[in-house]
Amino acid sequence: MTALFALPVRILQATWAAPWALVLALVLVAGAPSAEAASRIKDIADFEGVRDNLLVGYGLVVGLNGTGDDMDDDPFTRESLIGMLERLGINTRDGELSPDNTAAVMVTGTLPPFARQGSRMDVTISALGTAENLLGGTLLVTPLVGADGEVYAVGQGQVQVGGFVAQGEAETITKGVPTSGRIPNGAIIEKEVPFELANMESVKISLRNPDFTTARRIANAVNTYLGSTVARSLDPGTVLVRVPRGRAGGVVDLLTDIEQLRVEPDQLARVIIDEQTGTIVIGDNVRINTVAIAQGNLTIRVTETPQVSQPAPFSNAGETVVVPRTEIEVDEDEDRRLTVVNGGVTLQDLVNALNSLGVGPRDMISILQAVKAAGALQAEIQVM
Where does this polypeptide localize (predicted)? Predict the structure, then answer.
């Protein structure tokens, strides 16, 4: 589900390939009145029992155009093919079996909540051996089991592959991942997950981002709507709601009404840093105490331009030699100055102060970490 309102954040992103280029993107969602800024409970929390279940299976894909597994390198594909043919009454153990149009695959899928027997679900196909391309293949009947080892669905159908491979004698072009594909509605659900929602006397609401303040706001919103104290927060991630006795419609109607209630989620003061991509995400609640910031780098550039020295034409003396030419430049960033960031500044002031120093993204990450170490950054820094 997609939340209706995104909390104000600002994103700083750059690429390390251009050391002096800083691509600054400020994404600011202006603060709106609380009634419009609030999110639905269904967008920030889940209800107990309403959950997906993961399924997995092992199968064979046939009909490939010579891009299947190598039977010598993938013996499990050969044994699987022999076993399947024996179940169909064909004995191939005494002969040589080395087709290249068969591939062993792993089949994965997600069993939706309250899925009923006979309904269908999508499955994903991934090559397990040395197959080069699953384009044009067909998945044979494959049981899909859950964590308890029980079969909950059976998959079969034509594999749809988004990628492709085109190759010649000197060049190969690959688009996407041709060894992975999907079968829309490719599995039939054979067994249901038992769960009686209508008979529950209480329901737990699980927050996707646990927070004490948000949990209490959800409980207060539910109590205000129902006009009685039936909800209370158990911990930062759980709110317990008791089903009122005699309520018409039961649990299903109650959850339908609760999930539409709007609550304004609280946000932690947090700075997210991804050093691999150079991305910095700063939350709106980040605050800075008075601090002075200076940034400078020492850069030494050594350039070698050797020259060739040779005697004059038709000369009987002298020899041709290589004369080294070395040029050394030292840049101490003397134009950088000390910048004072006053306490209580906004996030925009902090960004402007850092940009005024002319720092790059990697240096900006180091500055934020140093400000945090100095105790002047009132936020949590999380490095991805």
Answer: Bacterial flagellum basal body
